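New to this. Look over this protein:
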Amino acid sequence: MKSRNFEELFSLEGRVAVVTGGSRGLGREMVLAFAGRGADVVIASRKIEACRELAQEVTETTGRRALPIACHVGHWAQCEDLYKVTYEEFGRADVLVNNAGLSPLYESVDTITEELYDKVLAINLKGPFRLSALFGTRMAKEQGGSIINVSSSAAVAPSDREITYGAAKAGLNNLTNGLARVLAPKVRVNTIMPGPFGTDISKAWSPEIIQMFERVVPMSRIGKPEEIIGAALYLASDASSFTTGSVIKVDGGAAFAAG
């Protein structure tokens, strides 16, 4: 690679980024970061109004085009609609972020119903597989691109309240390795593995849970949503041109003992 300045290396000018679970939390931060670096963005989530509100904010603050789309990634028909609309509107996709996730509470493992189990696996693993297959196959045939899966430290160090969620995210880590080989050399597939972050989900955490994280996380705190941006921009841009099949922890060291 010829020498380039940092501005060019991390630029997303002329590219299109698709982010599921993109209307809030870590997805929202990534959408804003990608648009801020020059990308047009597709904001997908189950809540279309939230997508529309963020799309308006993106356009007003960055001048980039932002397309809101309602999509439940657990349903393959809706995944296919997201894929079709993206290419109809933009003619390309350069970055796919599989960020949509779900980790419902349950009393104990024996109370997990088949419906709940299927729902967790569908959103956290089944949907990312289908979207990666659709977008990745076309990226590989055309201009190439980057797929970023958003996993969780629960994939390697699940708590007793994250059993199905952790299993699904472990599957997502494995999927990353497989697709990195299948879609090479033109498509890079990597995973960001966040630890506890102060997103909307954390508002339901009790003070005891927060204090527990402060004790066990080596950096003695939970993450700020904007702290996901560095890893996301690295993997989305040409800065990571020789990085694929990787799992990057952004967890304050929370999963250090798990490898």
In short: The mean pLDDT is 93. Residues 63 and 122 are 35 Å apart (CA to CA). The domain at 8-249 is CATH 3.40.50.720 (Rossmann fold). The chain has one domain: 8-249.
